[in-house]
Amino acid sequence: MRFSIRVVLLLPCFIAGSIVRAQNVAAGATIPLSGYVFADNNHNGIKDDGEPGIKGVAVSDQVNVVVTDDKGYYHIQQPAGYGYIFISMPNGYTSAQGYWQKINAAQAINFPLSPTAAHLSFSFIQASDTHVSEQSLDRMQRFREVVDSVKPDFVIITGDLVKDALRVPETQAKGVFQLFQAEIGKMATPVWCIPGNHENFGIERQLSLVSPQNPLYGRRMYRFYFGPDYYSFNYGGCHFIGLNSLSFDDLYYYGHIDSTQLEWLKRDIAVLPASTPIITFQHVPFFSGALSMENYKENGFDRTVEWENGVLQYRHVVSNAQEVLAILSKRNYPLALAGHHHMQQKFTMEGVQTRFEQTAAVIGPSDEGGLYHPSGVTLYHVVNGVIGEGQFIHLDK
C-alpha cells in the first residue's frame, strides 16, 4: 500500500498490568443493573405512566454493551467497568440530566430523554488543548465568542482540558478541574469532552507527591468530574466515539488504547447498522507529522519514546494504532480526530477511507519545529453522513 501524507500547517465531558498502566477494571456491582430509557414527555425526570420507552438504545458500563427492548428496558447481568453507566445518546434525542450516571446497584437506573428535531445536516466544532487555568481565562472567553458566532450544533474538545493535573497536589488539580467545569458551563452549546495527558492526576509523582493509592489517582479524577473517559453518542445519523488514547507506566504517559477499551469498542460498533458513518475523537493521535519536528529523546519529562512491555514505542502517537484501526476499518469510518500536538494536521493514506485530522490548541499559538502554528479550532459540516473538509478558524485576530 502506498502511503502518502498531507500535513496542513496553517501560518460533552458532556456538559449539555502495572499499578498505573491502565488501572485495571474495577470490581463492579455484583447485583444486575437494569432500568429504562424513555421519552420524558413532561420533563420531570421520572418515568410516569404512559411515557413510552425508547427501543434500540445502546447502554454500557464501559465493558458490556446492551440494547434496550421495545419497552426501552435494558439489563446488564454482570456489571463491570469503573462504576459508571451511560447511554449512547440516540439520534433525535437529548437529555437535561446528561448521558451518564454513577452506578448504584441498589436501584434501577433510568435515562429520561427529550425528543428533538432530527438533523441530517449539522455542524460541529472540534477544539483541543484548552489547558485551563486562572491565567488562560481570556483564551476560553475568545473560544466561547467563536462558538457563539458560528453556532454549531455541538462542540468536541479533544483533551488537555486543564493546565496540569499530572504533576501537582490534589488540591491544585481539583482546582483546575473545577475551573474547567465552570468555564464550559458558560457555553450555550452542548460540549463533549475526552481526557488528555494533562488529566492523568498525579502520575508524575516525583513532583506531585501523590500516592498511587489516592482514590483519584490517574484516570480516576477525570471520571470523578466527567464520568466515562470513553463513550459514544449519535447525532444526525453519525456515530461519534470518544476514546481515551492515554495509558501510563510508572511516571510517564504514552499514547495507547488499552485492552478493556478495545473490547468495548468492538461491542459498541457491533450494535450499529453497517452503513453508519463513524467519527472517532481522542487526544493523542493515531499518526502525527509533529514527530519529525521533535528530537529523539529517551529520558526526561520531554522524552519522545516510552518502553511498553519491553518495546520502545513513540510516546506521542497511539502505539497500537493498527490494532484499533483493524477493528474500525471494516466499517464506514470516514474521520478520526485528535489534538495534542498544538497544530492543525491532515493525513490521508491511499487505499484507506479514513481521514486523520488534528486541530490546533485553544491555549495559544506554538512554534514547534521552528515554524509558527496558530491557535484555532476546526469547523465541520455534515450533510447526509458526508463530512465536509474542515474549516480552520483562527482564535487570534
Description:
- There is one protein chain.
- This protein has 397 residues and is an alpha/beta fold.
- The protein contains six helices and 24 strands.
- It has helices at 137-150, 170-185, 205-208, 220-226, 259-270, 321-328, and strands at residues 33-39, 58-60, 65-67, 73-76, 84-87, 93-94, 100-102, 111-115, 121-127, 154-158, 191-194, 231-235, 238-242, 246-249, 252-255, 278-281, 305-308, 311-314, 335-338, 345-347, 355-358, 376-383, 386-387, 391-394.
- The strands form six sheets. Strands 9, 10, 11, 22, 23 and 24 form a six-stranded mixed β-sheet that branches. Strands 12-13-16-19-21-20 form a six-stranded mixed β-sheet, with no helix packed on it. A four-stranded mixed β-sheet has the order 4-1-8-6, with no helix packed on it.
- The radius of gyration is 20 Å and the shape is globular.
- The protein starts with 32 loop residues before the first strand and ends with a strand.
- Mean pLDDT is 90; it is low at 1-11 and 16-29.
Summarize the structure.
It contains six helices and 24 strands. The chain is an alpha/beta fold.
Write the layout of secondary structure elements.
Blueprint: E1 33-39, E2 58-60, E3 65-67, E4 73-76, E5 84-87, E6 93-94, E7 100-102, E8 111-115, E9 121-127, H1 137-150, E10 154-158, H2 170-185, E11 191-194, H3 205-208, H4 220-226, E12 231-235, E13 238-242, E14 246-249, E15 252-255, H5 259-270, E16 278-281, E17 305-308, E18 311-314, H6 321-328, E19 335-338, E20 345-347, E21 355-358, E22 376-383, E23 386-387, E24 391-394
